[in-house]
Amino acid sequence: MTPDLKTQHNVRAAADWRMIVEMIDAAMQLALEKGPHEVTPGCNCISCVNRRKRILAGPTAPWRHRL
Length: 67
Ligand SMILES: [Zn+2]
Description:
Blueprint: H1 3-34, H2 46-57
The structure holds zinc ion (ZN).
Zinc ion (ZN) binds next to α2.
């Protein structure tokens, strides 16, 4: 990668990173404003997003170790 392309890549990566951080900040702010609530489809607060992710991930694998 030439230095110029590398700089362009870094600028784009920094912009992407900033966008992700801003999205998480907005989701945290929304969760703070709404307070505790049930997991709601379409709600983009950090709590609902995480709980929906956990639901979609399915049940955890059974414990396979003996103590
Ligand atoms: Zn929510």
